[in-house]
Amino acid sequence: MLLPRRTVAVIWSIVAMLVLAIGLAAAGLVWRGQHEALRDSESRISRFVSGAEAAVNRALLSVDVLMAGIDELMASAARPDRSLDEAAASRLLRGVAHRNLMVRNIVVLAADGRVLAAAQPDILRVGLPTPQDFEQSVRRQTVPQMAISAPILNFSTSERSLYFGRPTTLPDGTRGVVVAEVPVSLLSSLMSYASEIPGLVATLEREDGQLLAAVPANELRMGQQIGPPLSAAALGGQPFRARGRIDGELSLVVARPSLYRTVNIVASMPVATALEGWQRDGWLIAAVASAFAVLVIGIGVLTHWRLAGMERAKIEIARAKAMLDEALASMADGFLLCDAQDRVVVWNKRYVELFPWLESVIAPGVPFRALAEAGAQTLLPDGTEAERRAWIEMRQAIREKGRGMYELDWGPRLVIDAIERRTPDGGMVSVIRDITAAERELKRAKAAAEAANEAKSRFLAAVSHEMRTPLNAVLGMNRMLLKTSLDDDQRRYATMIRSSGQALLDLINDILDLSKIEAGRMEIETVHFSPAATVDGVVSLLSQRAQSKGLRLEMKLAPGLPLALQGDPRRLRQVLFNLIGNAVKFTEKGSVTVSASHRPLPDGRIELHVGVHDTGIGIPPDTLPKLFERFVQADSTTSRRYGGTGLGLAITAEIVTLMGGRIHVRSEAGRGSDFEVTIPMSPGDAGQLASMLANRDTTPDVLLGAGLRILVAEDNEVNQLLIQALLREMGHHCDVVGNGAEAVRQVQAAPYDVVLMDIQMPEMDGEAATRAIRALPGALAHIPVIALTANAMVEDREAYLRAGMDDYVLKPVIPRQLAAAIARVMAEAEAR
User: Fold this and answer.
1) pTM of the prediction?
2) ∠ CA(781), CA(785), CA(789), 5° rounding?
3) Buried b (16+ CB within 10 A) or exposed e, 195-220
4) Quick one: CATH architecture of 69-187?
5) One CATH from 3.40.50.2300, 3.90.180.10, 2.60.120.280, 3.30.450.20 for 694-831
6) CATH hierarchy code of domain 523-684
7) pLDDT, tens digit, 9 for 90 and up, residues 781-830
8) If we measure between CA atoms, which residue out of 815, 10, 146 comes closest to residue 479?
9) E strands, 445-590, where?
10) What is the C-alpha separation between 44 and 311, in angstroms, rounded?
């Protein structure tokens, strides 16, 4: 019996809408996936270009700065009659070339093109292989600036090089040219990261499109014009689509100009490459959508025919079976059915696609063990026979469980998720899913989380710098104010300002310590120190706070406490400050007792035990398990009543763990608390400790009467006044400049014993200024330089020392630390 037309129309309208919905959803997923793949590639290219731009700018600027300083270098090689001592000049150029890793050779040419001096002796004999008219174009410049040649093959090294030229004035007043040779390979190395991005081509081009360097290297196109000049809009750093600069394929292109507008950095990736990883996902979406569409159509067909009557039941069953077989063939997952004797009955195409090594083995009736043996041969090609047998037995053991889910990791090519179930007749159904893409997504998510954590650390470092700079002025000027004649109210107000500023500084230090711990950059030193003196120092500093609250602060040192141990006294003091300071803060009446003892360990080390007992408010039992978590206090009223962020104990626990120790607390609400810290340490040398303490204690006193002449480079006017006042108190004379460039000029204009160098300054920062000073001739290059900065991260200090600075003082400036730093660098200078 045929169905009414209205019923048929309703059935197939619903089927059509579902199929259309599936098609639209699949198309949307495909479009979105392609869009995200392109956007991800554009982001990677943009990040690469930003990094390459910074590296190329640093390299070009270093070469330009080097050549700009050749005037003075040649002046130092002049004879009394102002003629150039060519041998001396060549020696000086060799020294400069050896100190600059980017430059292979430096040559000074006379007005007539004759080589006057060169870092490489063979140039004096064979001449300079620069391009035709290059020297004349440099010599004709009205405003001196750096010019860059096309790539030239240097026959002495069989390597292509770029020549950088700049006009110079010779000691006799005539105009010459200084030329620096930079191998193309060194410039290419600045963009070497491009090789790690599949399909990415990075080029360094002149503004007219001439190729200077490329990654991957392309010797055939080197020095040729690889495309039309890029417009100003194209050089904005935004991704756009265009023909690749070398391969001519439709590509994603990002271009940026360098500091020298004649040189551009360009990176491109073929659109096909950017979408290559997405193609398989697109086909998978299409396959799944097709399967669902087929299933919907099948259901529609099945419904239509079933409603047509019982006479067509057999035909409908046969058609349904055919549809199910087709759906099985279209499954995205691999499927395998074995009988009760574990012999293959049926499988789908996807199963063989996942395990291609089974294509020649699998067949109806083949034992599953034969499949496992083929897998062992493929997955363990270099393994021994015993290893393959062990793998086969492992696979059989998993299968014999008969009901389970498991995951197998077969290297970067394949990670599968498998489900195996017994059928009622004893057979086995296996469904295999490829989750390699999901595993890769997890790795990408992990990398993104690590990048976010690194961004947070950079943000905290920047915030710390911006807060420490004004805090330096506030605390320093407050210190100077307290030394003046003030009435009682004024002194009380000034004291309150100092206390609030110090509290803010402590908070900044806590947050920075937390950031260092999270990033794994918290450093633990190992030096000789006195445990008794360390505990006594903290107790002495906090005794006035305890006395102001009417508390007894007692210290008990066990007999026989070692005179010296090896550890980090600075971090131990931080732990004690947090524990004893909290005890004083949360105790209204009674006492705080600090004890220290030790016991020997079997491995020869000593276990230092420090306890802090108070009669304060105590800790509720429900708070104890999370006491050492960040931003946790006993309850919401604690912060309102006593203040604080809840970071102190969290940082304390992290530090104790980093030192290899442990911390424990016992407490009851209203009955006080006991904190116990146990840290293993190696025995120390009491004699060496005494010598260190003697040197440290005498250094600042010796310095106060030294009367040094000090140059201060600082752009903040308030900090200028503060540092001048501090140095006058120490008995020194100082001059102040506002940026690094002025500092470099000033050290050449007047003799100075020490330079105090801020880091972040206009025109030229502290690191660049220090490098410029270290490049000066003679004794000027050895002037002690001390970094005076608000950047408090560990990597900042390492960067400043690499830049040539001798020491490091953190803002807000503590006079005793500044005096000690000046004393250290002066002692090192005298030793040289």
Assistant:
1) 0.39
2) 145
3) eebebbbbbbbbeebbbbbbbeebee
4) 2-Layer Sandwich (3.30)
5) 3.40.50.2300
6) 3.30.565.10
7) 999 999 988 665 656 778 888 889 999 888 778 888 888 899 989 988 88
8) 815
9) 527-529, 552-557, 565-567
10) 64
